[in-house]
Design brief:
This protein is α/β, with parallel strands linked by helices. 60% of the residues lie in helices and 11% in strands.
């Protein structure tokens, strides 16, 4: 079957990477998450650590400051946030030349703008479920975890808004939105795989 490219946007702690990995095994196509960072590093001259830190966690204030410095500085200065975004977009477009699963980094919007056939998924869960999952994963508890989840959610929303002009999680931008806390990861994989297989057969 010729599957479309699948993009997975997600709230922090909603299991995007875990579901992408399981979906990759189910459909037999690769998934790219950290690979986008590595490919962007090759193309941009920034390190993987810099892209990890800045690549999806921009604040609006940081972006505005970067734009101000770019406007006011000598010719040749470039806003690092925009450079990193462009490098990640190029990596996403390269990976999307064949069926795959792309996690985060505005992949849905980038592919839509490029006219590439894709199936766009948004994963979410209530705050308590996501906090509990991060506590188990990172072996930490308490207000620190809740604060981290809130912060990462806000940064991802700002990043998506800055580079797409849309709201992260707005159902108009996706083919399907799934509550991973209620449905469960295995069932989410089954639902997505079933829809994508039927679509490929049409």
């Amino acid at each position: 079957m010729s599957y479309p490219v699948i993009t997975i946007s997600r709230e922090f702690g909603a299991g995007g990477r875990s579901i992408a990995r399981r979906l990759s095994e189910e459909l037999g196509i690769p998934y790219y998450d950290k690979d986008i960072v590595a490919r962007a590093a090759e193309k941009s001259g920034y390190t993987k650590e810099e892209i990890e830190r800045e690549g999806e966690d921009i604040s609006r204030a940081s972006h505005m400051l970067g734009g101000f410095l770019s406007f006011g500085a000598a010719a040749g200065y470039n806003n690092q946030y925009d450079e990193i975004f462009r490098a990640q977009a190029k990596a996403i477009l390269e990976f999307a030349q064949s069926p795959c699963i792309l996690v985060g980094r505005c992949a849905d919007s980038i592919l839509r703008e490029a006219g590439i056939d894709c199936f766009n998924v948004f994963l979410y869960a209530d705050l308590e479920h996501r906090v509990h999952r991060i506590e188990e994963r990172d072996h930490e508890q308490g207000a620190k975890v809740r604060k981290m989840v809130d912060k990462r959610d806000q940064q991802r929303k700002e990043y998506y808004k800055v580079y797409t002009g849309s709201e992260l999680g707005d159902y108009h931008n996706y083919d399907i939105s799934l509550d991973t806390g209620v449905i469960g990861y295995d069932q989410c994989v089954e639902i997505i795989a079933g829809i994508v297989r039927r679509r490929a057969q049409q």
